[in-house]
What we know:
The chain is an alpha+beta fold. The chain is 24% helix and 27% strand. A hairpin with a 4-residue loop joins strand 31 (476-477) and strand 32 (482-483).
Amino acid sequence: MKQAQFLNVVDRDEAERRFRAALGPLTPVGKERVPLGEALGRVLGEDVVSPVDVPGFDRSNVDGWAVRSEDTFGALEAEPRRLRVLPGVIAMGRIPDATVEQGTALAIPTGGVVPRGADAVVMVEHSILDGDSVLVTKAVTPGRAITYAGTDVAQGEIVLRARDVLTSRETGILAAIGLDQVAVLRRPRVAILSTGDELASPGRPLPPGAVYDSNAVILADAVRECGGEPLSLGIVADDPEAVRAAVLRGLAEADMLLLSGGTSKGPGDLNVRVLEEALDPPGIVVHGVALKPGKPLCLAASGNKAVVVLPGFPTSAIFTFHEFVAPVIRALAGRDERASETARARLPFRVTSEHGRTEYVLVRLTTDEADRRVAYPIGKGSGSVTTFSHADGFFVIGEHVEMIDAGEDVEIHPVAGARPRQVDLVVIGSHCVGLDVLLGRLAARGVTSKLITVGSEAGLSAVRRGECDVAGVHLYDRATGTYNAPFLGPGLELVHGYGRMQGVVYRKGDPRFEGRAADEAVRAAARLADIVMINRNRGSGTRALYDRLLGDARPPGFAVEASSHRAVAAAVVQGRADFGIAIDIVARDRGLGFLPLVEERFDFVVPSRRRERAAVRAFVAELEDPATRAALRERGLCA
């Protein structure tokens, strides 16, 4: 290629097509481990799995009294309920020895460990101490003022995913789960070379006819903003051998090379001539683009390394940098190229608030069939470290508003300057470790996703309303004895997933369960006064199994609803509950006993009108891939 190529000016899209074709697939340049204190702004190189439960114990959210909620039912200021005060006070950082029996209460501070037997905490403001008794003036429901172990983060849960950019929100999560190092993507090194006899470095006297080299500073900071690491090659005079030596150094030490100036046909501009001789194939692919500013742009590749000669004028240089170079750096750094939006969004369901206070509701955003934004409120409580990280934004409920009805629009504000994450695939519904496998493999292929876990029934409703691409479901139909298919309606298709074994989890060695059949053990346990269960959230497929097993029985713990299989396991491991229902994978991970109950189907529902979307096709193809099926089997699923 000779400099005459500059006469063959191409349009912007053709220039980008040639450039990207020369570079081939763009993938991150590698991984490295860094201390947590140096992780801010870096891109995660792999999924982060929590080694601990957060919180690590059942924690009181207020100062007050640990009680059995049923002992407070009917309590009023005029007719308080009297409870016997147990001796002692729960010390911070200590596991209490006492057990809260029927008709008793134990003093507990904010952040204290909830003792066995208690399923709620009465605020001190709603009590009156009377000798060795306490008068409760307001009833509490099960779970009131308690954050249960593993509610925020459960051991074994993926709390951050590969390609997440670490802000203070994410580093807070890493600290909360006890990590002091993290695997991040290596920042691509971008060599920056300024050429020209007329250039001078800032801080030095400016000779007549010279200009300060501002491009080097602009480009270095722009590289950092894109997630790259600039390597300054300094200023080189208009000498072919000196420029060639600098070019070869940049190619040897960096992942990309940027030159500033030397792209026109003037006698002193020689960068393009040097590149014609110094680069490995494919070499220069474009020299001249129909841009204003930016026409002299030169795009090239040496092997798979991008080489770009930007125009000398700063405005042209930074414009063409953001058009052609920045997306490549972000891709090499594992970052998302696309800009995001904030606007008004529709609520999919009613949201209530207390009168007299302004409330900020964190949300995750998706879009419906009419391309209108939909805001899904999220939250695990004020002490959660994950909710803030996962949020795309928030809306404000005024102090005089008690309810915003389903279908109403709210104004979405960004979270701490963050922009809503635009993704390829939106999945709403039940959660499963197999779904983690699928989405992780899609991410490795460049398909980004957003998972909003609301349970099978809510996921089915979301897919009917057109608010997602895929819904994960495991709903059992008693009439037919089958899963999922009976719940489909017009315009919905079932994509067959895999089987997973549900069963009763318990602490190994418990004679009430050891060696017994699951259904027999649960029905027998439900009649015992000293056993505590842990339930699942209403609307989940697992909740239907509880209801089928228990019938009309309501053993202690029935009203306490865990949000996931791992949260059920955490409750049993911690001793708050004696049994629950979860999948066998979780039981193995936590060292719990397991009584098989039923092999259920975890399938996926897709709207027919979205079946041909590229991301949906990629999801279905990934699910059918033999390598994926093998990965699912390795996780203990029946694929």
